[in-house]
Amino acid sequence: MAGTDEEAVAAADDALYVLTAVLLTPATFPSVLGDDYPEACGALGLAPLADGYGLILGQDGEGARWTVAIDDVSLVAVAIASWDCGMEYELSPDERTVVAALPGWPLDVAVAAPNVPAPHDPGPEVADGAPLTPPDTTTWGPAQRRMGADEIARQWTTWREQIDDAEFLNPGEGPADAAPGAEGTEADKKGLSPVRRVLAEARAYADTPPPLGRVRSSFASGDARILRVDGPGWSLVARTDDIAFVLLDEEPGEVMPVGRGPELPSLLEALDKMAVRPS
Q: What is the distance of C-alpha 32 from the center of its chain?
C-alpha cells in the first residue's frame, strides 16, 4: 500500500461514507494540485501510474476525512458520469483495487456525511503521516492561477464574448500581443514580454516534450478542441480554431487574450498533436 499502512487502510475501509470522487489521470486531474500529472500525484505521495487513479473522498464512522486511491479508474469515471447526470450510483470499490488510503482531503469538499461527527483529520494512531490538505487558494499563486485557467476552459463562450478582437493586436503583427484582461487595463504594458515568453515556452514543448499532463486536449463544439497548457508560472487556455488566454503568477488576477495572427494557429496545432486526451 503506497503512502499508508495496514491500520490506515483498515480504518478508511471501515464504513467509509463516500462524499465525492475525482479522476487523477494524465488527461484529467485536479489542476489545483500541480502543473502536470506527476506533480499532482506527488502532492498525494503517489507514483504516477500510466493509467492513473480514481480518488474517493469520504468520512469514516468517526467522521475522519480519508482519501482512498484505487486503480480501477473506469469505476470512478462511471460514478462521476452518473452523478453528473443526476443518477444515483453507489461507489463501492473492490478492496483489491485500493492502492492507498490517505488521511485528509487534498481538495475542498463542501458536504459532509450525515449522522457522523463533523469532518476532521484522523488521529496519529491510525494516520501514517500528515493529513492531506487542500492547496491555499486564498491568495494569487500557482493553485489559483490554474483554477482560473480551468474556469476559462469550462466557460469558454462566456469569456470569449467579453473580448472585442479589435482591441488587441496579434502575435507577430505589432508591439503588443495581449489585450486588457478581465481585471485590469494595463495588460498591454505589463503583459508584453511575459506573454511572448509563455508562447515561446509553449512552442518549445514541440521539441522537448514536457512532463505528462502539461498539455491536455478536451472536446469543444464542431471540430475544435480546448487546450489546457501549463508551465512554470503560467497557464494557457485556447480553442484550436480561435484565440488563447494567458494567466501568469506574476500578474495577479490578469487574464490576457492572445490573438491568432500568423503564429498562434500553428502553435495550437502542434500542441494539440502532442496533448493527452480523455479516453
A: 5
Q: If you write DSSP's letter for every residue of 200-228 in order, what string do you get?
A: HHHHHTTTS--STTSEEEEE-STT-EEEE
Residues 12/101, Cβ–Cβ less than 8 Å:
yes
Grid cell 475501509 in the structure block, residue: 13
The tens digit of pLDDT for each residue in 76-117 reads 999 999 999 999 999 999 999 999 999 999 999 999 999 999
| Contact of 233 with 202, CB cutoff 8 Å | no
List phi, psi (to 5°) of 247. -125, 140
User: Rounded CA gap, 277 and 74, in Å?
Assistant: 15
Count the Cβ atoms, other than its own, within 10 Å of residue 133: 13
Average pLDDT of the chain to the nearest whole number? 88
Buried b (16+ CB within 10 A) or exposed e, 55-83: bbbbbbeebbbbbbbbbbbebbbebbeee
Q: pLDDT (tens digit, 9 = 90+) per residue, 153-185?
A: 999 999 999 988 776 656 655 434 444 333 333
8 Å CB contact between 254 and 190: yes
